[in-house]
What we know:
Elements: E1 9-10, E2 14-23, E3 26-33, E4 39-46, H1 51-58, E5 67-73, E6 76-82, E7 86-88, H2 89-94, H3 101-119, E8 125-126, E9 135-138, E10 143-145, E11 152-153, H4 180-195, H5 199-205, H6 207-216, H7 228-239, H8 250-261, H9 272-283, H10 289-292, H11 296-316, H12 320-336, H13 340-353, H14 358-370, H15 374-393, H16 397-413, H17 420-450
Antiparallel strand pairs: 1-2, 2-3, 3-4, 4-6, 5-6, 7-9, 8-11, 9-10
Helix pairs in contact: 3-4, 3-7, 4-6, 5-6, 6-7, 6-8, 6-13, 11-12, 12-13, 13-14, 14-15, 14-17, 15-17
Amino acid sequence: MAISLTGMILKGRYCILEQIGSGGNGHLYLARDLELGSLWAVKEIPLSQKKEAKLLRLLEHPSLPRMVDYLEREDHCYLVMEYIRGKSLAQWIEEGRRFSLEEVVKLGISIAQVMEYLHSRKPPVYYGDLKPENLMLTDTGKLCLVDFGSAVLGYQEQQRLCLGTKGYAAPEQYKGRMGKTSDVYALGKTLWALCGKDGWKYVCRKPGFGFLLAKCCCREEKYRFSDMKAVEKGLEHILRQRVQVKTVGLAVVFALFMLAAAGLLIPGEKSEKEFRDALTGLTEVYYQKEFLEGDFREKKEVCEKAEEHLLELLQEYKGKDEQRKLLLLLAWNEELQDEEERAALYYEQLMLYHKDFDGAYAEYGLFLCRQGMEEQSRSLWEDFQKKEGLREEEGLQEEEGLQEGKGLQEKESLQGTEKEDGNISIWKKRMEVRTDEKSGNSRNNSRSASH
C-alpha cells in the first residue's frame, strides 16, 4: 500500500499539499515551493522507471509540462514539474461536455503538432499511450500532453510488453513494437472518443473526417498516415472545407466510411487489364439508349446502378491509381444526377487521399465553378499555388514530374476526359479571367466615383 506524502517536505523546499492524481507507474501531488511560494506538480515514480525524467529534461514545447527539478529518495524519484490548472479531456467527457466537430479537429491539430515535435527529436520519442486521460485542457484553453511513463526513444523500439492502454494502443504494441504510426493510431482513437455520441453525425457532416480517422486506425501500419505532419495537414484541410455534405444519405456515408476502415487504399493484386476491362464495361452504360435518349428518371436509374458497381469496384480493386479513377468517376456520376453535395463528397476524398494528384485540385476547382462557387474555387486555386511553391522549395521537381506523368496516363485511360495538364490550364484561365473581370469592375467603379 502506498504511503501518502501529504505534509512532507522534499529537498527542504517542496511541501506536499495533497495527492491530485495517480497512474499506472506513480502518484501525482500538488506541492508549494517554500522559497518562491509558487505551486508545482510533483510526480513520484519508482527509481527503476526514472527514464521519464530523462525524457522530460530533454523536451521543450508549449504543450509539454516543464520539468524544473528532480530528486531521488530511497527507492523512488520525484519529478518537480509545471502545475497545469485544468482537467483532462477524459474528465471533461465524464462530466458531460460535448465537443463540437470544430473543437475536435482543432484539438487534433494541436495533438498532432506536439506529437510531430516528439517524433522529430534525435533520437525520436514515441509517446506510446495517447488517450484523453493524458491530455490536459487548461483553464485558458491550452492543451498539454502529460505522463511520459510509456514513452520510448527511437532506438528502443523493441519492447517486451505493451505499455499502452487497451482501446488506444496500436496492434503492433501488443507484439512489443512501437513507432510513429503507433501514435497515429492512438490519435485516431482519441479523436473518435472525443466525438462521443455525436461521432456519426460528424462523419455525415464531414465525411473526410471519417476517412481520416479510418486511415489513422488501420490495423496494418503501412496503410496509416506515415507521420503526424500528414495527419495535421488532413485535419487542417477538413477545418477549412468550404462545401459541407449536409444531405448525403447515412447509408452512403457509412458505406464509404467502412470501405476506408476496411483498407480503401490497400494496394491490390488484380491486373491492370482486368481493371481496365471492368471499367470499360461499366462506362458503356452511359452510351446506351436508356441514358442518351431517356428522361431524367431513366438517366438517374442508370447512374444509380453505375454507382453501385463503382462502389463494388472500390472494394475489389485496392490500388492507389485504381482508387483515384473510381473516386473521380463516382464524382462525375453524381453530377450527372444533379447530386452536387454527393459529388462534393467524392471530390473531397480525392483531394484528401490523393494529394500528389494535381488533377484532383483541377477537377474539384472546376466543379466549384460549375456550381457557381467562384470564391471557393479561387481559395482552392490559392491553396494549389502554395502547394506548388512548397514543392519547388523542397526540391521535389523531379518527383513532381513523375507524379504528373502518372496523372497524365490515368486521365488518358478514362474515356471522354481531358488530360490533367489541360484541366489545370482550363482552371487557371478561368481564375485569371475572373481576376481580370474583378480588376475591370474595380477600375470602372473608381471612375464612376471620381465623376
